[in-house]
Design a protein that fits this description.
Distance between the termini: 67 Å
Number of strands: 5
Strand content: 5-15%
Helix content: 55-70%
Shape: elongated
Radius of gyration: 39 Å
């Protein structure tokens, strides 16, 4: 038979039958899954209702245990100190925090008492100390700008800028959050000063500060000398202006050259004044930096003297414990039921 003589119905009808068959099977499968799910839910609800007394008792016991535990054991308080390092100190600071934390965990009360200048009974109330980076978006942008200035292109090509912007890293920040935990909420105010003194006691950090200050003092002396030279130059220019005015040449611009080179640009009174302002501003910046480098760390936020409660509230502990105990009891009852090979609604 010629292919062209095959009717359209004869080619489409088998396809429609196949589609109808697949649809019926999918519907039957979906229906059976839905009915089975509803049946399991019904059995679970029936099982729960039959054992509701046991489940409520388990939840009550769990909540009660959490309540007494929370009230019997002392609460933990925490307080945060935010500091900014004036020099590169993150490795030393991390090491110091780990050292103090090891003393706390090993209950080295005598060493801690001397280090923090507090009584031994107060030292035993400490629970933990930890450190985390605290870099703002603008600080990270500033860091990237410094990297672009001080690194060569081959090294910069290996820098993961997305990682710097998305994640906090001790090496990529100048600000840190130090968290101290204690069973006594009123202990934090007495610890801040001696703790910072310990952090700044490292000979390595002291040497870094010394070098920074020496460099700044050298720069300060240089600008003081430049200002003195400008004062002398200003006096010479003033005398030249007076002489020019006395000779009747007041319309001419008076200037002076600081070099014997004829190609060097002469300085006018306005140039001298601008340089004087510029050098004076440099001196102001140096004085601010010298004051900054008196210490390794600058406090951005002090410890809260009384701290705040750490962890969950008593109410949340009771609720979570009750739900946990009820859930465990429910699973155990299910397990026993299956071991006995009984249906859930039996």
């Amino acid at each position: 038979m010629d292919k062209s003589s095959i009717s359209e119905d004869e080619t489409i009808t088998p396809v429609l039958r196949d589609v109808e068959l697949v649809t019926k099977k999918l519907y039957s499968f979906g229906k059976s899954v839905f009915i089975g799910t509803v049946e399991w839910i019904r059995r679970l609800l029936t099982f729960t209702v039959k054992n509701i007394i046991i489940l409520l008792v388990a939840a009550a016991l769990g909540g009660t245990a959490a309540y007494f535990y929370s009230n019997h054991f002392k609460n933990t308080f925490e307080s945060h100190l935010i500091i900014k390092s004036n020099i590169n100190t993150w490795e030393q600071l991390s090491s110091d925090v780990r050292y103090v934390n090891s003393l706390i965990s090993n209950e080295q009360s005598e060493t801690l008492s001397k280090l923090l200048n507090i009584p031994k009974d107060e030292v035993l109330k400490l629970r933990e100390i930890k450190i985390q980076p605290s870099a703002t978006y603008s600080q990270k942008v500033g860091l990237i700008e410094k990297l672009n200035t001080h690194m060569d292109s081959s090294t910069l090509s290996k820098v993961d800028y997305n990682r710097i912007m998305q994640f906090d890293d001790m090496a990529f920040t100048e600000s840190y959050v130090i968290t101290l935990k204690s069973s006594d909420g009123a202990i934090f105010g007495d610890i801040e000063a001696p703790l910072l003194s310990f952090f700044e006691s490292s000979p390595i950090l002291k040497e870094k500060l010394k070098r920074k200050r020496a460099k700044l003092q050298s720069q300060k002396a240089m600008y003081v000398k430049k200002l003195s030279d400008l004062d002398t130059l200003q006096n010479v220019l003033n005398q030249a202006i007076l002489t020019s005015a006395a000779s009747g040449n007041s319309k001419e611009t008076t200037s002076i050259s600081l070099s014997d080179n004829p190609q060097s640009s002469p300085l006018s009174p306005i140039d001298v004044s601008e340089k004087y302002i510029s050098y004076h501003q440099e001196l102001v910046d140096i004085e601010e930096s010298l004051e900054l480098y008196n210490r390794c760390y600058e406090i951005k936020s002090h410890f809260n003297p009384y701290g705040t409660k750490a962890g969950m509230s008593t109410f949340r502990k009771v609720v979570y414990a009750a739900l946990y105990a009820g859930g465990v009891a429910f699973l155990l009852l299910l397990l026993f039921h299956f071991l006995k090979k009984k249906p859930l609604d039996a």
